[in-house]
Amino acid sequence: MKQVDARGLTCPKPVIEAKKALKENNCIEVLVDNQIATENLKKLAEVKQYKVNVIKESNQSFKVILSTGSSNSPVQNNVILEPNKSNTNVVVAVDTEVMGQGNQQLGESLMKSFIYALAEQDFQPTCILFYNGGAKLTVENSPVLEDLKGISERGVSILTCGACLDFYGLTERLAVGEITNMYRIVELMSTAHHVVKP
Amino acid sequence: MEKINEFGGLFICGGCNAKIGPGNLSKLLNGLPQTNDDRLLVGFDSTDDAGVIKLSDDVALIQTLDFFPTMVSDPYLFGKIAATNALSDVYAMGGKVLSAMNIVCFPEEMDINILGEILRGGSEVIQEAKALLVGGHSIHDSTPKYGLSVTGTIHPDNILTNNNCQVGDILILTKAIGVGIITTAYSVGETTDENFAEAISSMTTLNKYASEVIVKHKVSSCTDVTGFGLLGHLSEMLGENQTAYLTSRDIPVISGAYECAQELLVTAGGQRNRNFLNDKVLFKCDDFAIEELMFDPQTSGGLLISVPAEYAKKLVDELQQVDQLASVIGKVVELDTHKIIIE
């Protein structure tokens, strides 16, 4: 596959380089160093009806695979979460609204500072999964909502178990990220290099 | 980093596109201590770009500053655009410009004559504005940056703020949008000299003339359209219980900008604006290029005016005497499903 190194280039240069390369290739891989550039490449794909995959390797390293779809291309039209080769594929699994066992109030406060500290890290996980009691953290009035929104803006998927939201009657109140299911949770946890649990 | 491009002009890296994103900034500002003083009529607790301080019952002082990195390679034009933009905040408030001071960052190793050209462009604009150039400050920096600190005056009862739209108001825009897209496209050789010249002419047109018209009318609110794009600045103008309806075909656009937007010749700043506003805006027009134009950061853009419907016709007629592009682009209604709805 043709590779276009657009790292260090400001928008719209990554888009221009990608368009040039796509004149002669059906499928290309564009390297960029910021999230905004991936978003502009995704818009190019939308407008031109190309298939697109975005692979986030770190906050400063992204691969965007674009395919014109005119050949048997390996690219599916979705955003894949797992980097190819990776020591960076970390999934955070939150299964309760408190951190650790013991005092409830302390546990709540620890969870709040865990999410805050996570938001402050340079390194970000691929996704954060919320299930069982954890599902109470991604809904309206959650004490960690603002930090989660910040993390989400940096391109981290915030995924909450749909059955769990349903069980607690919170489906309508989901305030950040998306709903997911057990198949996806199993897939994400089993393909992760590390699963971090607070 | 490269500072001179192959044409011997300035390396292009900014304009209002260089502005720090609205989301990041408001979080920080909310954390700072507030100044409480009756003389401070407009402070930074509002989203207005300029501050206004009451000196007496008849006179208030307007203070503002703006500077940015180069968005065109010609230093003289860069100076003109940066100065035109810096003066604009005073005009958006309905004030008169009194004085200006140069703000300069310039690389030690770069040809000093380039700085001379920047300052020449700036001073021509200051003269056109009939402002007094009273000094300035310059430092060495890795890339050139230029702008002005501007002082203006206004009667304390006549201040036009940027967040006082009323339901029923008509929205008027005085300049075409798309200058960010055109300057960016031109810098990579993807648009014509004619389109670029049109954008330059727009960016170097002082909002003075439009401002002198609007102060004679009963206008509710006014702002200048800059880095946050048309939609970003419009969203700041609207009250909590208001929605703006825009008609996309009525919005003036710089020639060639629509085609450049279709070809994704768009900036990072435009995408940042889109990310910030995404859930507040509903596009019913199904036209990607129009969306991009509305998010496009405008360097030295026009005035966006909100005026009660009964005065709108007369105001537009008078504005068109000084600025042919002045157009009615929409209206303010009671809160609907989104803050801004575009048809």
From TrEMBL, chain A:
Domain of life from the UniProt record: Bacteria
Protein keywords: Transferase
Coiled-coil segments: none
GO MF assignments: transferase activity
Domain UPF0033: 2-66
Pfam families hit by this protein: DsrE, TusA
Family annotation (InterPro entries): DsrEFH-like, Se_metab_YedF, Sulphur_relay_DsrE/F-like, TusA-like, TusA-like_sf
Protein name as catalogued: Sulfurtransferase-like selenium metabolism protein YedF
